[in-house]
Amino acid sequence: MRHLLRLAVIAVGSAAALSASPVLAASSSAESGPASVYDLSVLPSFNGTVTQYIPSAGGGVTGLLLSDGMQVLVSQDLSWDIPKIVKPGEKITGTGLKGKALPIIQAFSLSGPRGSRSEDAGIAMPQHSSEMVAGPDIVVHGEITHPLYNIQGVLIGAILKDHTVIRIPIRDAAKIAAWLKPGAMLYAAGPGATGVYGTAINAHQIGPDAQQLLSVTADDLPPPGPPPGSAGYDVIKSAETH
């Protein structure tokens, strides 16, 4: 009898120790990202079903496309948590600011169907520029389902029916806005990535078909210097100031 009582006491003590352990308690709870110091509950809430990730040409994720056509866009910090929170075909809820006229939401918090949640801890609005992506060109073509916007609501490309994302420098996207409407066919080539999050490219050639192509240049490329053989070809401008 004493032996049974001793075992019962040990079992109760072990259970209490496990529940008090911060490491084990954390592992049993839903995975969450860093919390913001701001009260995000005052922001408008949204929800929807995820159609696809909005991938970057570098292989990451910049947001979500919902089944109603809404683009949920996030800061770079929050983007890392998206694949952990939700998968295509699942429901997403969150808080954020909706576009006045455009189908975009700048999300500051996201919650997934399995209890995972993350918040934009810094509430920063980074100026997303075209990624410098190296590698062989990926050629894509198909029907446009949605124009693509950045977090500031600026047109930067298109999403195709097969979920491919084509990113275009801002100045060039504005010039060819008529090509980027839903239902239009689009052909593009440029470096990018194809992976678990989808396919995305930074286009350097784009057009309605392979016979009508416009060359575009990344926004953050440095301006061309003097041609080889000219007087200024070997001059490094930054060195002239020192």
UniProtKB/TrEMBL annotation:
Keywords: Signal. Residues 216-242 are annotated as: Disordered. Residues 1-25 form the signal peptide. The keyword Signal applies. It comes from the Bacteria. This is Secreted protein. It comes from Acetobacter aceti.
